[in-house]
Amino acid sequence: MNTALITGVTGNIGSHVLYELLFDLYTKNEEATIYVLIRKQSKKSAKQRLLDEVFTEQLIPQKIASFYKTYVEKYVHVIEGEIHNFVIPKEAGNKITVYHLAASVNLSNTEKAKNEITNINYHNTQAFFEIIKTRIKKLVFVSTAFSRGEIEGKITDDYHSVTDFTFRNFYEAYKMKVEKLVLQIAKENDFSCTIVRPSVVSGRLLDFPKFVSSRYIVFYSIGEFFKKMKKLYPDLGKIRMALNMDGGLNIVPVDYVAKGILRAADTKEEQVNITLTKNVPTHHIITSILRKCDVEIELVDEEPKDKTTIEKLFYKTIGSQLVKYSTSKKHNFESKLIRKLLADIEEPNMLNSFSEVYNFAHDINFDNTNIIVEPNI
């Protein structure tokens, strides 16, 4: 890797891809030019966002702590702009390794969500490739393991040889649409492309400090909701949670995902699911979270009709997006290609670690500013 471009670097996965790239340069004693595309905010420049959102002391992995400031100054160059409106410097050349992560993760089925997903994940991505397509050597496009939609049984890495899709939301549907678009653009412009598909992303499990993440969303949101409700209504009563007792969720730590994305830059495979070989049973996820929230639960097959006030609020907000996944059919990801790419890295055991992963976020109130950073002695 001589020249790289990362989009979505202020996101959870994107920040970890940058950490991995810097660590890779350090361990191999190599040099590179890393461009990061960041949009400015009303009161904050793109460069300031990089420092404030990516290189916060609570988030920085220990393994890069001693050298990252020097490496950021030397190798990381900020491009201020939007993914559909930016200028790639001439000196970047025409052999850029692109890690495209920028996207909206809106799991709602509202018209507003559809417009957001269509504009950001599809039209803006089209515009991005119009700007960059003749400059790419290798593209690693980050999609989602759920772009296959609802499916039962074994899920292989090849999503494109099938025609039957049952999408749960616009996010899944448009991720598949964009996958096909980028493969077509790669073919037309003669560059190598690998689509990588992480499943549900959690905090770190391989790199220290463990469990930390830049955002605590998806399953974390369930705990955040009920932690707040329990504080507001100490006697909120029993909550009925809809789930498939045989089902599971594939939860993968963000540092494992980032390592997989880096390895994908060196593979000729077109599709790689960044998933673990075993799912965490949904009932274990729900009971672990609500036990920590000190909320009594009853596991049920489907959304209750006669909801309590708190249940109504849950199923109207967080539940409207997540129950589609907790009630999903039993499935498992084959995960052969990612294990081949990461053969030298022990696969994390998410089932054994899930309670620690969730409890960490719960205990800091889902806010990294509450993490106490040990001073360097």
In short:
This protein has a domain at 3-207 and 251-276 and 332-348: Rossmann fold, CATH 3.40.50.720.
Tell me what you see in this structure:
The protein has a domain at 3-207 and 251-276 and 332-348: 3-Layer(aba) Sandwich (Rossmann fold), CATH 3.40.50. Strand 1, helix 1 (12-28) and strand 2 form a beta-alpha-beta unit. A seven-stranded parallel β-sheet has the order 3-2-1-4-5-7-12, with helices on both faces. Strands 6-15 form a two-stranded parallel sheet. Helix 4 (111-132) runs parallel beside helix 5 (170-189), helix 8 packs parallel to helix 12 (350-363) and helix 9 (309-316) crosses helix 10 (318-326). The model has no long low-confidence stretch (mean pLDDT 97). 40% of the residues lie in helices and 17% in strands. With 377 residues, the chain is an alpha/beta fold. The chain has helices spanning 12-28, 46-54, 68-75, 111-132, 170-189, 219-232, 254-264, 282-292, 309-316, 318-326, 336-341, 350-363; strands spanning 3-7, 33-38, 76-80, 96-100, 136-142, 153-155, 192-198, 200-202, 239-242, 248-249, 251-253, 271-274, 280-281, 297-300, 331-333. It contains twelve helices and 15 strands.
